[in-house]
Amino acid sequence: MSLTVAIIGRPNVGKSTLFNRLVGKKLALVDDTPGVTRDWRAAPARLAGIDLTVIDTAGLEEAFDDSLEARMRRQTERAIEEADVALLLIDARAGVTPLDQHFATWLRKGKTPVILLANKCEGRAGAPGLYEAFELGLGEPVPISAEHGEGLAELVEALLPYVPPEETQPDADQEAEAGTDPEAREDGRPEPVRPLQLAIVGRPNVGKSTLLNSLVGEERVLTGPEAGMTRDAITVEWTYRDRPIRLVDTAGMRRKSRVDDKLEKLAVADALRVIRLAQVVVLVVDAEAILDHQDLTIARMVLDEGRALVIAVNKWDTVTDRAGTLKQIDDKLQSQLAQVRGIPVVTLSALRRQKLDALLDAVLDIYEIWNRRVSTSDLNRWLAGMTEAHPPPAVEGRRIKIRYMTQVKARPPTFALWVSKPLDLPETYIRYLVNGLRESLDLPGVPIRMLTRKGKNPYAEE
User: Where is this region: Disordered (predicted)?
Assistant: First the structure.
């Protein structure tokens, strides 16, 4: 059983730095600017044999209206409610501030146990603040340095009283001796289904966070009229029709020439990382600005990475000329993304929770196509028909011969052609084969990669 710990504190005390240190990855954006983190995010960690779920939260602010700061505070309160232990982080070099005292008083009234951490205690500069921390009334502070990794052993000792007892489960060696190796699954149990990695991307303020909240049925991430609200890529574990899905909300991606702010550059880089790790990407576009230049740039980026793509046209309830808008979408896809025909397009309203099932069904369908494999015999029968209908061109008086074809991998579907002169096979002929492959063997909407190889048929008998 995992111990859930929430890292809390006022802005710019090092919460995200500690989060990255505990999870062992640079998942959270870190910058000297206060208020970088806005949504809370969770990630698994293991510290000295203790399994943890670590939650990074926004900086606590004394705001109780409908402002962005107040919404961030409410998100942090929810994270504290879900945690087994709260880690209150203070900046030892800055000393105890009135805001630290205010929130320490507030935490003492709550039900969640609190461990006080004095950050930035490397060297002697943090010593006065460490001693001041005793006056917060939360017990002995644990001196740490999140940036340098100091004090983690003391943090483990402070966490041990809250670690739940181990469940009585046989370990891997015991299962292997009993003939039930969890890797082999000889006991007949089904293999665990891995979550589908689903990323939500798009321009700022098109409704990405609203879509995630509507899908999971709760206010998991901040939403509002302010553009660029999401900065960190927020991951949410979720299940749809018994299928585990890992949803990731990302920051809005503007044109590169318009991105000047350092934090926005970091947020966009994080969004690009999410795209590379995703399996299916939902590109959210605004129904009032259909597939503009930046939308198409993001779509090409997703396809170039080999990810499966679904286009979600949000705010569809505001569209009056729906037939004309659909025709406009189809024309742009045909002209601008002709290399991948059949990309699924779903019209919906994230705010009104309309047609969300249609979106998820399209995601599952395109994921199945993205994973599809075609038998070698079917491929070569198809290839014979294609080359007979339109033979490869001749080079220097000799016709190029395509001897053989096989699928070398899925995700995305990737095929290899054994060609007599691979460097001379025109790109137009490869596109002819890809388009025919997509239509004849039912591979719509996913990127298809075609590789050329020189040599004899590796499967031919000697």
Answer: 165-192
Provide the domain limits for residue 116.
3-177
- Residues in CB range of 304: below 8 A, 6 or more apart: 447
> Are 356 and 444 found together in one domain?
no
Which residues carry a binding-site annotation for GTP? 9-16, 56-60, 119-122, 202-209, 249-253, 314-317
Are 92 and 148 in a shared domain? yes
Q: How far apart are CA 393 and CA 433, in angstroms?
A: 13
In a domain, 184, yes or no: no
In a domain, 182, yes or no: no
pLDDT tens digit sequence for 18-39: 988 998 877 765 555 555 555 6
Q: Which residues are annotated as a binding site?
A: 9-16, 56-60, 119-122, 202-209, 249-253, 314-317
* Confidence (pTM): 0.73
What CATH number should be reported for the domain holding residue 76?
3.40.50.300
If one counts every other C-beta atom within 10 angstroms of the C-beta of residue 235, the result is 18
- Do 418 and 442 sit in the same domain of this protein? yes
